[in-house]
Amino acid sequence: MTKIPLSFILKRLHSITGFLPIAAFLIEHMISNFYILRGPEAYNARIELLSNLPFVTFMEIGLIALPILYHAGYGFYIVLTGKDNASWYPYRQNWFYSFQRWTGILTFVYILFHLYQTKGSEFLYGKEVNYARMAEIMHVPGFLWFYLISVTAVMFHFANGLWGVLIGWGAVTAPAGRRIAGWICGLAGLTLYVMGVSALLTLAK
Amino acid sequence: MAKNKILVIGGGLGGLMTTIKLAEAGFSVDLFSLVPCKRSHSVCAQGGINASVNTKGEGDSPQIHFEETILGGDFLANQPMVLEMCQNAPGFVYMLDRMGVQFNRTPEGLIDFRRFGGTQFHRTAFAGSTTGQQMLYALDEQVRRYEVEGLVTRFEGWEFLSAVIDARGVARGIVAQNLTSSEIRAFRGDAAVMATGGCGMIFGRSTMSAISTGAAAASLFRQGVWYANGEFIQVHPTAVAGEDKNRLISEAVRGEGGRLWTYKDGQRWYFLEEWYPKYKNLVPRDIASRAIFKAVRELGLGVDGKDVVYLDISHVDRKTLQEKLGGILEIYEKFMNEDPSKVPMRVFPSVHYSMGGLYIDSRQMTNIPGILAAGECEYQYHGANRLGANSLLSCLQGGFSAACSAGQYVQGLDRTAADVNASIFDDRVKAETSRRSEILKMNGKENLYQLWQELGDVMTAHVTVVRYNKDLAAADVKIQDIARRAKDINVGDLSTWTNQSAVFARQFFHMIDIARVITLGALARNESRGGHYKPEFPDRDDANWLKTTVAKYTPNGPEFSYEAVDTSLLKPRERKY
Amino acid sequence: MTTGNRIIKLKVKRQECPQAKPRWEEFHMPYRPYMNIVICLREIQKDPRTSDGKLTTPVVWECGCLEEVCGVCTMLVNGKVRQACSALVDELGDEITLEPMTKFPIVRDLVVDRSRLFASLKRVRAWIPFNSAKDIGPGPHITPQQQQKDYVLSTCFSCGSCLEACPQVNERSNFIGAMPVNQARLFNDHPLGKPDAVKRLRALVEDGGIEDCGNAQNCVRSCPKHIPLVDSLAEMNRQITRSLFRLFHD
After folding, report:
1. Is the ipTM of this complex over 0.95?
2. Does B421 touch chain C (CB under 8 A)?
3. Is residue C226 domain-resident?
4. C50 and chain B: CB distance < 8 Å anywhere?
């Protein structure tokens, strides 16, 4: 057995956490949010359903919080080892490289804030997370804008990251395959983005 | 396992081949190169390497390759060595194949061959149009493998200054300078194989790299190594003239169907096809260059009245061009901003190769025991004119043979360089160090680079395709004048850290020595043979001049003597194409 | 030749030695058709005077083949990495800046030390495990299609442009860059290079290896030889994923 280099394990783990638990959760989250469009009852029922799942706390911590923490932690390390140069080499993919890092940072900040406004408020002030609570937040224009911008960042980070995973694991290699994969990832991101934004705008109505 | 250390100077094809062969035999090698080996001038070889593998069933054979090489060289080459080279050629190509060189393939998956000048056979293996680069990389990779195994130590960024020769006249090592730190150091070695390339920089602009000054060979010339056939300089018919260098457009373009033409009476005139109906555009280089000179200078038919003729490949389909000539065409397009697959290329002859070089015997040994030479820096294998795609071959043959000879030589020594008293090494280092200080102190009125340009201009004007005795004599006077003025240069840089001006100044002094060897050798040789053409003596004169020129250094200029050529295998006959 | 009075202004970043502070010097010279950066720098050698007439040392820079096959004259021209020989003034404008590459240790003026490139070739075993230089016949048959694909990969001349343009290559990281990854692909693809394929993959997953790629894809945009470097990176990723178990199990 040859020793597996630590950097290799950490990097692949970063890639796996982004792809499996986090992206999967993101999809689930957007689907849940989509219930907002069906009205308060449907959305609240959905929340009810989710919070009554067996082992929900274990899943929230083990499958969502820890992977995000690891992904973010290692992500910050990656940001520190890079040196953006899109102003000298202003190519699309190089801009995406920079965006990936900026959106990663923004996403992490946003998640913390979002958590504070939902789970945090519930824990600290007993404000239950439901349609009414979310609509209350989205009626504050500053919050709405912050959410809209952040969701854009999240979805870019998701789509571009997913594409990176496909290349990084060698799932697509040829230029045509990479291009098609890029479109699919972009489309997936856009779909989730539309779902997320429409939910936000519905709440803000 | 042998304990001897052997020094190889030069990291191009010749030097790397020598190194591989020596390392394979278990010798410890110190390899010196001005630049990282992968940046050696061998990268510029485009067209290919000759080997009579006869893949196309045309009836080609090493014997025919030999005869055509001798004929191409106008019978000036010593024949047994050429025969050996041609016989080894298929083996070398197979060796490169096993090293992973990306030779173009036939549909069946065999190595493909194309046509080149001076033959009617498909004899030239090629890797796109960067064959020299691909071969160099393959050899460099093998040397790197030996480096990892500990048999080879590379000294890249070191320049050879001079050999260390003991009281008995035997070479015991070299002195070299680190081009970054300027450190001057002696290296002990039981033999030194010189593979330091050509001397195109003497001509200012040529197809050669900026590192091809010939200074290393010239330095040895001063130390008493003879220099042979210096006057035989190959002028390649097709290059793109540039202010910084003339960029080669390979003979492979004509091998793949390219045609040379210019306008005559408003019509396209394919002058080579008219004058040489059998070989057409693929006559040997000296003949093609002279033909272009005749069309342009004598008949005044250069394109737009300039020193330009057209090389046309636009009739060949784009895919073939891309696969077989991609690199060349891309370079032409980059520098000239015209697409050669659509419009003809504008070319003119340019200095390309030095057939002459360090004098070596049939075992690649110079007249100083312990100093061997291989590749373009020596004079064997090509006679008075080199056939296209024979240079890569001669680098491998020379390196291979030099390695074998060096191995035998060092094993026959009664004592090794390690046993030699340190004083001869110290003395040499002292001499070179004081020479360096003298150069750094030069603060006269002349500009080094200006003088270099003048030397190049005079050499190009008078010592290339067409030579007149009056002009050659005048050129020598001019060179001596340049040599005098060179004593009054201003180096303009006092630093000992990466001081390129000081380095080039020393190289330039050496270039002047060889410029005189070339010019005076040409002046003396009153005949026309291969690349050496004198309208006043238009014919080959075997009775008087079927002999090798041997130049020896004296403080008053080169001294010439002549040596019979070994023509034991093929009787000299008229050279007709 | 009509050149008019066009003057080329060349700003060169100069540095005596690694310890010295960099400074800028400006040189003016008359424009000539087909002028490239090499011609400009040689013009300075002939009269090393700055635009305000001050005598200076000739600019130190490297050049070799002058036809973009040796890679030695690579530098930053107007901020972008490229070869000086093929950088034509006509496409650069009349004000041109020259700087040394930034991802390699500086030596002097425009010269940098790129030895790490060759060290990385050792790391990925960029060679065929060759038997001997004896005449023992040809290598295996190779289809023209494979040759065409691999030839392009093997035209890399170690200029370092892909490292220079890569945001992941910098003083805070030890990423080897796209160049050695491409070489590993080349030799893994050759029938005679395959015996060492797993060893090359192992070298690629070690610290500073292929995992540090950030998918910015500047390498492929900056490669003067148009080598499909992103294909090479993706292909080696695939090979690593496919042989994950073999990589660490023996």
Report:
1. yes
2. no
3. yes
4. no
